[in-house]
Amino acid sequence: MKEREQLISDIKKMFQVSDLSEKQAYILNSQLYEAYNSYQSDSAVCYLEKNLLIAQKLNNTEYLYQTKMNLSFLYWLKGKFLESLSIVGSLDRNQFNSLPQDLLITYYEAYKRFYYYYADSQGDAIMDYYQKSSCYRDSLLSILPVDSTYYKVLLAEKLTDENQIAEAKQILLDLLDHSSEETHERAIIANILANTYKKEGNREMQKKYYAISSISDIKNAVKENASMQALALLLYEEQDIDNAYKCIQSSMDDAIFCNARFRTFEITKIFPIIDSAYQEKAAKQKNELKLYLLLVSILSLFLVIAILFVSRQMKRIAKIRQELFDTNAKLNELNTDLKNSNTQLHHLNDELTDVNRKLSETNLVKETYLVKFIDLCSSYIEKLDNYRRNLNKIASSGKLDELFAALKSSKFIEEELLGFYTNFDETFLRVYPSFIEAFNALFPEEERPTLKQGELLNTELRIYALIRLGINDSSKIAVFLRCSITTVYTYRSKLKNKSLFKESFEEQVMKIGTYD
């Protein structure tokens, strides 16, 4: 657009030349018409009307006919079909015999275009106008050089209408291959090729060539275009609402900028449909986003409550720990006094020592797991906050597809679950470092559980690690390991049957790793 505006500015500067002749003014007006054509139709009409006065003043038939046919094209673009036909109809056909052949080509093209688009805007019922358009196309084919691009384009259109699709595609593909530069001609060829694929029913190739045509129109600042509108409708039919809305909005902006009423009228047939679908989708996505943010907020609230609860429990445990310490000190004192007693007192001392051992073991387990639990809670709060911020950042930037991908992904849960099990395994083995060796000793050598490389504990060992910690309920174990209760029962039964202590297997497990 900047390049086209600069071109228009440069041409206008040439009007500052003194003693400009009528013919020179006509040429400059024609150049401005070409610059404004398919860009801003009102300005193009303005300079053609100036040329019309100059042509009448010079009594130049060639100038007059050329200007009128150009005006006919712009009136058609602005939706003035009758005025467009009236201008072309006022021309004397016999006069073209004495004028350059280019004017006769333009004359036939004007009638061909008028009858085709008038019939297209009124509906397929007016087949007579399509037939007239085809007749003028045949007239063009009879006078155009057979090696010209325009001849080949018209021939491809004719072959397409006659259902000779393969031949039409070959002609158009050859033309497109030889039009490597982004020109308006390339846009026209790609548009016709897309229409050919449309008749064939190939939607993917339609999208490709409508896109190529639209790109060429954009690069040439052509605001009077049809490919972007056709691409929008095709994307809408495939339920690609976001891209369909972008394309139809772009097409509408171009038509309004150009003041191409015919294009605007065509766009208004489908714009409300696509816009309604887009607004409905946007509203649905907005509601879903609100729901997700609400869920994250609720989870964060629950986490804060959990932290407060843990803090309260820590205070209670600290008090119990002090009481246990005081009790342990008293038991140690009592144990010293009973050392010199008889066998019965010695037996009592052994029992008290065992109680002291169990209390100390309980104290160690609680202290170790509490520290680990506090550390995990702090880590998970930070991770949840970072996850919330990341979602909020994605939502704020309008990247809804990326947001949904993040929300649907289970990668975050899987990574955290793997880390949680690793923490559990490390903490448990820190408390009971001889657990695996002692557990294997409960089985014949050929039946002992084996660990994969890099594993601290596997599912079987974790089940009995939880049992060793006092969690004997299979349903709680299933929730912890994220598996079914049936799976837990199966593992427990299988290992019990393989062990050397089928009747007292779990009692033997409870004796593993007693605190020394």
- Derived from helix and strand composition plus strand pairing, the structural class reads mainly alpha
- Unreliable segments of 5+ consecutive residues: none
Largest sheet: none
Secondary-structure element series: HHHHHHHHHHHHHHHHHHHHHHH
Strand content: under 5%
How many DSSP E strands?
0
Overall geometry comes to elongated
Average predicted local confidence, pLDDT: 82
Terminal CA distance: 86 Å
Radius of gyration: 43 Å
Oligomer: single chain
Please, could you describe this protein's structure?
It is built from 23 helices and no strands. The longest helix has 67 residues, at 271-337. The two termini are 86 Å apart. By secondary structure, the protein is an all-alpha fold.
